Amino acid sequence: MTLARESTTRSVGRGSTSFFRQRERPDSSKHAKPILVMEEVYKYFRRDVPTLKNVNLKINRGEFVFVTGPSGAGKSTLLQLIYRKHTVDSGRILFSGRDVARLTKSSIPFLRRNLGVIFQDFKIISHWSTFENVAVALEILSIPKRLIRSRVAEALDRVGLAGRGNEHAGDLSGGEQQRVAIARAIVTEPALLLADEPTGNLDPGLSIDILTLFEEIHEAGTTVIFATHDHSLLQAAPHRLVMIDDGHVIEASQGLRAWAARTQSMVAS
Ligand SMILES: Nc1ncnc2c1ncn2[C@@H]1O[C@H](COP(=O)(O)OP(=O)(O)OP(=O)(O)O)[C@@H](O)[C@H]1O
Ligand SMILES: [Mg+2]
Known about the structure:
By secondary structure, the chain is of the alpha/beta class.
């Protein structure tokens, strides 16, 4: 099934007075500065079989990269190594030039401020208000209350939830809850957004809406790594595509796109 994205996308808030600075446009030259470098990364959960082996990946500032591969391939693991849920067993990961495994306790705010993470299951607190769910990302960085109010309002505007701050997060629809999670991830203006199957719990139309929202955030200058095995999304957007296959990360060619399209049409028929 190929989704008609024009019919499902909708425009969301792009406040003209936004504090979200328009970042420098991506530099597509080969001299562009990498925001993320993975060098000979190995991760073992079982002693004998590495989940990730010899992963080498470079992502420049301003890129939008899809990460795909079958269930269990290691997509979540790859992202978890970046946001330091796990650490590499060998090799290294440089984020903005810093080795994430070597970040000291005092550098953790650097990671929190510069990385936004979005999950399949939203991970919002349902008995909190929408405002509180987004504000928490700034509170842990000790941002003054007055600033928090305006920044949360802008973030909610950006994800299409302007004026919804007082609502109970648990009362929102699935798509709206994911928008709250995205607002929480972008309210700190991170340089890099990591999305782990962010549309996995949403129906196809909403998935395209959420992809479009990520693209708008990317357009404003944020680097995005979007893990998904949803072929309809991969087909809908012409972004760089890397695939995890047997523990290796492979730069996808047109061949892979054709493969994705073929398997998708087989599923649909
Ligand atoms: N904390 C962990 N402890 C042990 N094994 C793990 C752990 N996390 C992941 N694994 C294993 O690593 C492999 C890759 O898992 P991962 O969750 O990264 O895959 P995935 O590509 O994200 O899959 P899916 O599409 O189902 O989300 C799997 O075999 C999984 O069982
Ligand atoms: Mg996963």
